[in-house]
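Sat 14:20. Reprocessing the chain from the morning session after the first attempt stalled halfway. Input below, unchanged.
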Amino acid sequence: DASHAFVASPPVDVKRTQKILAMSSAAALSPAALALRAKLTAKVQNRRSRMSAKVVTRAAVAAPPGVSADTVNDAINTVRFLAIDAINKSNSGHPGLPMGCAPMGYVIFREAMTHNPKNTKWFNRDRFVLSAGHGCMLQYSLMHLTGYPSVSIEDIKQFRQWDSKTPGHPENFITDGIEVTTGPLGMGICNAVGLAMVEKHLAGRFNKPDCEIVDHYTYCIMGDGCNMEGMSGEGASLAGHWGLGKLIVFYDDNHISIDGHTDISFTEDVVARFNAYGWHTQHVENGNTDVDSIRAAVNAAKADPRPSLIKVTTLIGYGSPNKSNTHDVHGAPLGKDETAATRENLKWKYGEFEVPEAVKAYMDCSEKGTAAEAEWNAKWATYKSKYAEDAAELESIMSGKLPSGWEKSLPTFTPEDKGVATRIHSQTMLNALGGAIPGFMGGSADLAPSNMTLMKQFGDFQKDTPAERNVRFGVREHGMGAIANGMKLHSPGIIPYCATFFIFSDYMRCAMRIAALSQAGTIFVMTHDSIGVGEDGPTHQPIEHVASFRAMPGMDMARPADGNETAAMYKMAVENSMNGAPTTLALSRQVVPNLAGTSMEGAAKGAYVVQGAAAGEACDVILIGTGTELELACQAGAELESKGKKVRVVSMPCWEAFERQPAAYQESVLPAAMRAKTVSIEAGTTFGWAKYAGASIGHDDFGASAPAPILYKEFGITADAMAAKAMSL
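Finished this time. Tokens:
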């Protein structure tokens, strides 16, 4: 099958890249090394200059020929009543949005979107995001009617029940065909920006004048609540700045929230705000029945090179005689009597969960979706034959199959290499991976010079340079995290990273949690990781942050101690990304030495012996250090050994990786019987360390403004304090 005869990804030229990368980070940043890097990446430079800011538009949206207005109306009402019936059966859910948004949902899924329900992973499909995720019965009903096998009528009947495929909010890891997990309001629109951003990037990078292989839209429905949440503004501002012309967002303007009518708290002109962001805006005044105006708005949106907001004024709970246009229909079932009244009001003669045969036949998009995919596959075969090298890179991104040998691009270090902060080591790793992995891209929240996140061989992704791979997110942490998650969920081989100071992870924690929940393998690069920040003081000094991310399910929390461990944690982060898991990297501001006992192989196990008694050997005491404090643990170990103690010093850069190791290995490194004789040291809260250590050196209060060495001394985070604690056990 020519459509599946993919060109293999090219191997990394290890010998050539090691000339740059297998050296100290200082040498890797020397003028000679940077010149060599530029030479080796000339091909990439040439490719990215072939950018395409053109918006490719498809055929106009229109009522399919030969289909009556009655059939269309029945299809819309079927969506409404599937939602009503499922929510009544579960006695839980939000019927108001599906009832009001059914017409726009119909136009999107049946007429506007190019999608193949029988292959939800088809690369060039249009994407849909329900940012107002509480209204998910709208999406489930539309997926069922258009032919997605993942949402059967039985699944509809099991809405919000244990082990069902129709949970209470859309979850991409539960229901095949859901693109992203939404629920926290405002998150979905930012995910949609990430999806549309990757489409623009890949189009600019791979499309040719005679073969536009990347050409799809991202559709989104957002509500008043999404617009109230600040992160939606962050994402929308970037979408306008980037000129994401393939992003079409429907704003369900129904004037109702949980508290009541929105005029009690929300009276701004949303359209004017989006105009200011640089969006194309329109208003459909009757979203309840005026399907033609919705169609016309989609066509106008596709004809404009800007991202589009279509404000659609609807009646929440449309059709319900007594509950429409009230908050009562927002988040509670209609109930038996009101459902009967709604059936009578909309002249719906069909029973519970009944889909009219004409609607079944008309709404199924399987045939046209399969035909669209076949047409694209033929184009892809032509592309591969004419542009084999670019096709291999794009195939790596589409499939998630990384080039062989990519991990060998990561450098190793010896104690003779000059010590630098782990954020500097991080920059070395980012530049190495950017040259080795076609889909590696990302950036910082206006802190690139401090986070050290620029890939020197690439320019900035911007409206007119979409093929570039450095992303300037601006001071928008929350939006940045959600956009990066959307980027990852666009294609398996996209590996996005986003960066800020670790303290500002508080702004984006919700997006980081959703990454873990939705199996989005985003890499969160967090620098300035402890009281070592120093003079900026307690507002900028993380205390509880490492512990909080260790407590987050599905998140690997990594705190490397030096160059070798930073390389190991980046290798792990890339592998995690391919396996559907995010990673948070905590990186230092202060300089650390490259320690004698560290290694990539050991660090990959999460915890390993770096000094003293080997794993499995008897010892008197165990010292555990992470990050910048591993050096202190080694110093304390040496002091204890000078007093006749047999000491094992363990580096523990990642608890989660350690806990994935075989039980025998875990016991050999940190024996349960030695817990009372184990001391940990970490420049943050001691919370959680009782799992591994009988005593802990740390700081369980806010920091202070002073030079870092003074803070370490004043807070008792020293090698002497660790040695004294060990002697007291």
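Residues 1-57 have pLDDT under 50 and may be disordered.
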